[in-house]
Design brief:
The structure is a single chain. The protein has 333 residues and is mostly helical. It has 13 helices and no strands. The two termini are 30 Å apart. The relative contact order is 0.20.
Length: 333
Amino acid sequence: VRRDMSLRTMCKAPLRDDVEWASEPEKMLQPGSSPPACNTQPRCDRRLCRGLTAAVTAAVLMAGYLVLGKLFLGSGSGAGPTAFLVCRQVLASGLLVAGALALHGPQLPRRADMPSVQRLGLYNFINALGFLWGVQLTTPFVTSVAQLAIPVLVLAHAACCGRQRVTLFKAAGVLVLVAGCALVAAGAHSAAAAPSAVGRPRGHHGSARLLLGLAVLAVQCSSFVGLLLEQERLVRSYPVSWVLAWAYASCTLLSCAAAAADGSLGAVGAALASPRDAAIVAYSATCGCVAYFVLIAYASKHLPAELVSVTVAVEPLAVSALGMLLLGAEPCA
């Protein structure tokens, strides 16, 4: 990250020459407030470009996390998805809380906003754990394609709430996304049911594993939609860094409880046993967590959730490229 795009720059409120509503700070402090329409086209264009740049960069970072996460889970270290999640969350939470304290000092959410913060932490936990289990049960490419369901769900929610009007072009885009997901799922199902490279039939076991993975990813995508919507409301009233810190602190507690419940808490040390695995954990915490959600929150402050969610379409392309460069894998493997 360049010096002029530091965490402080991304987490503070927009500058006065950024968007028109930055000149009215009192409006940003009102729960549920949203930026009014820009009066000039250049300001709207700058806001759109900055938000899209942040969201697309986040999608590329997440693609790297997908590929490296699959490499970690297949390394045979003995650390499963829950143990890996605990390591990632503890490190990411520490970084986010330290950054929030340095930027804004101690701060707690108002009592009226506590339920929203708790929901955000729960959505974060379901999304993070579901994502890792989805990668383990399927492939990075299938997992990234499954994320294309997110804009469909966000648009459906916005239409039901009256925030968006479903037009012909939006409906056509939704159908294209659904068709693409269905084709990839069908192709992955055929590959899972085919004999393995060493001649052992996978058949029913491979198909059942894939279907279970797709079901987990469906829950994960739904939780990410809830995360986007809750976060969009909270960043209107609180600093981005504290919203993320609260969510990750809650998610970390839930992750530790889940690891204790499934007996994987003792395998946390195995996740850091080798330098390679420790480096993957460090990347997942810094780029796959801190940088990713800072960029998503920054984008949410400049764009509606419906537009932010569309940028997940970048992930399958980035996963294919990174998979071939880093792992020598086939694009759809």
